[in-house]
Write a structure and sequence with these properties.
Low-confidence stretches: none
Distance between the termini: 31 Å
Number of helices: 3
Largest sheet: 3 strands, antiparallel
Strand content: 5-15%
Order of helices and strands: HEHHEE
Radius of gyration: 13 Å
Mean pLDDT: 86
């Protein structure tokens, strides 16, 4: 389940642009602390994800990030 949630977080951020930790926690039915652990795991895996604090903060993927599509040849 953990790996599946990590992928879902990435796809959610690709779709929405950004989200808050409480928003992600509610969506994926986990604690805010778990979301921060997931963000650390994604960052450690090389996904360019970051969090900004403050009123207009949130969790973002760097704008240059895309998921490569592999085609069978």
């Amino acid at each position: 389940m953990h790996e599946s949630r990590l992928f879902k977080i990435v796809y959610y951020l690709l779709d929405k642009g950004h989200a808050t930790a409480p928003e992600l926690a509610e969506k994926f039915e986990v604690s805010v602390r778990t979301i921060y652990r997931d963000i650390d795991a994604l960052s450690g895996a090389g996904i360019p994800i970051y969090a900004e604090t403050g009123r207009n903060g949130g969790i973002y993927l760097m704008k240059i990030f895309c998921i490569p599509i592999f085609q069978n040849r």
